[in-house]
UniProtKB/TrEMBL annotation:
Pfam families: Fer2 (PF00111). It comes from the Bacteria. CDD domains: fer2. This is (2Fe-2S)-binding protein. InterPro entries: 2Fe-2S_ferredoxin-like_sf, 2Fe-2S_ferredoxin-type, Beta-grasp_dom_sf. Residues 2-94 form the 2Fe-2S ferredoxin-type domain. Signal peptide: none annotated.
Length: 94
């Protein structure tokens, strides 16, 4: 099971999740607390995170991420609602 480290508001939250989990879905059903999110469909960017480690195991940004994040993708930003976690990852959300 992948291990997710989330840095949020100066705190570190660490949790194992089932393979191929979507963190926004888990947050929505109260299984991954502390992650901010909004629409869950890649339209609002409220779930934007910065990937600190483990990004190489993620799929390439899709068209929604390219449209909504643009140049922020170059700085490691991703939309959590568009990510499926299959390996350990460390992320930060402001």
């Amino acid at each position: 099971m992948p291990n997710v480290k989330l840095h949020h508001n100066g705190e570190l939250y660490e949790q194992e999740v089932a393979a191929n989990s979507n963190l926004v879905v888990l947050a929505g059903i109260k299984k991954f607390p502390h992650l901010k999110y909004g629409c869950g469909m890649g339209k609002c960017t409220k779930c934007m995170v910065t990937v600190l480690a483990g990004g190489e195991a993620l799929a390439e940004p899709n068209w929604k991420e390219n449209k909504m994040l643009g140049d922020k993708l170059n700085n490691g930003c991703r939309l959590a609602c568009q990510l499926y976690i299959s390996d350990d990852i460390e992320i930060r959300q402001e």
